[in-house]
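so ive been stuck on this for like two days lol. basically i have the seq below and the ligand is magnesium ion, smiles is in there too. i just want the complex predicted, nothing fancy, no docking runs or whatever. if the output looks off dont worry ill sanity check it later, just need somthing to start from for the group meeting slides
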Amino acid sequence: MRRWIMHVDMDAFYASVEQLDHPEYRGHPVIVGGLSARGVVATASYEARTFGVHSAMPLSRAKQLCPHGIYVWPRFDRYKELSNTIHKVMEEFTPIIEPLSLDEAFLDVTGITHKYAGPVALGKAIKRRVLEETGLIISAGLGPNKFLAKLASDLDKPDGLVVIPYGKEMDMIANLPIKRIWGVGPRTEQRLKEGGFHKMKDIQALATEHDLIPYVGNQARRIWELARGIDERPVEVDRQVQSVGNEETYEVDLLDPAIIDVELRYFANRVAKRLRKQGLKGHTVSIKVRYNDFKTVSKQKRLAAATDQETIIYETAVLLWNKIHGGYKPSDSKSMRPMNTESLQQGRTQPIMMDNMEVMGAMPEKHFDTSILALPHKPLRLLGVTVSGLSEDGLVQDNLFTSGHDESSEKLSSVLDELESKFGRTAIMSGALWQRENGFGGERRHRSTLKAHLDEDKDPLEANSALHNSALHEE
Ligand SMILES: [Mg+2]
């Protein structure tokens, strides 16, 4: 049976929803974005695009180009709601759906094309159902595979419906630029152009991938195949990860709150990093404790806003720990100090200002003193921290916003993630984690695991604090 894949893509999704919900906006340029001084356009309506406004553009620039536009703050809950409705409509057609973001999905419609007069009729039917249910217009593309379906949906936007039929794959994409090939970013594009490859047809002319190897190395085969319209990737039904957690069973039972504190920091660090790596955020933080008599206790807390941030996960874990062990004590706000790198260097547990949580209302308890970690009832064998209630952070647009309050910590996290992937984990660990890996009481074992240049003349923790400051102050 011939495979048929459909790609559906809402047209100017956020802006279209605003025009749907506010009839007075219809026919006018609507720009959805973060409205602060450094905000960015998330979506521009087609009316706004005629003025040259496009997504990811600084809002200040958009206002120069389109001063009379209607500028609105995004309403993600509403977009999510409509996205769910659209998903339900798609389920009327096939259960094989791979969502890519709030407004895009692949559908494997192989088994249902026979119910319609052909792929065009099927595309029309889905477009009509989405319009009936939501009032929104989508573009759809159909083809023998994912790559072609996605190209097709983009060929006639907005309100597009393009089918790339079997046998026409190479012809229909021959004149598209090579940057449209999945995975070809600016650098690969540049190298291909140096080889004289500008359009799909330039690559299609090659009998094998061989001549691409000098320019793109081991990507040659994939690029050559895609340019010829070959793509075997299946539509992957969303198998949602339910939770992200780390736990450890200890060789020697733990009893010392200072060590337990370091362990909680370590788990929060690992879990936050894994969440960010997968583009996920979670609403619920839980901890699991198993004592030396094998009694196991878990406790969880739902946050008002989903997070992928280490500090929030750590602070919540401490709160839960203290709830289990009866040591919870709201602190006197005078004792609160902002987290400083000096305290990290000393490896001490310091009270931390809960800036993010306070703003987001995640924690009704305004501040709590993390320097008081309650004694465990009994020695522990196992400790773990898990974040669940996951949602995909999938909206690229969301990340572009200047949200003011938690931007600096998110920026720091992403800078740290990047450095960590470059230099290895030990190079940038915060003080407590450094301590975990190198011994308590300032004793530094396994120093050789650090990068040599950090060893030379700089204390690695100083390097860490310098990084901390520059990341926070980066424009
Ligand atoms: Mg779209």
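The radius of gyration is 26 Å. The longest strand covers residues 380-392.
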